[in-house]
Design brief:
mainly alpha; 68% helix; elongated
Length: 94
Amino acid sequence: MNLKKNEKENSFSRRYRLHKILIALISQQNNLELIDDGAQIFNKSVENSGKYNSSKIIERNQRIIKKYQSLVRSAIALDALLESEQYDICDGKI
């Protein structure tokens, strides 16, 4: 029972570390865009909808999602590096 409690606490502390690292990475970004839901396309009249290109909105959103994914992957890599520093590799514990 105590083992499960330790695993849960370790999981929580790791998630907290990942969260802090991700927030730090996001705060370093100068121009971080938010995903566009494309709602303006449906709110405009049919005559004006020609100037809104839904494929461009989708491409932009995909680019933004890739940026967020790279930030998350970077946070995970940094967390793994920080965690590996806590263990003595010469002692055989990883």
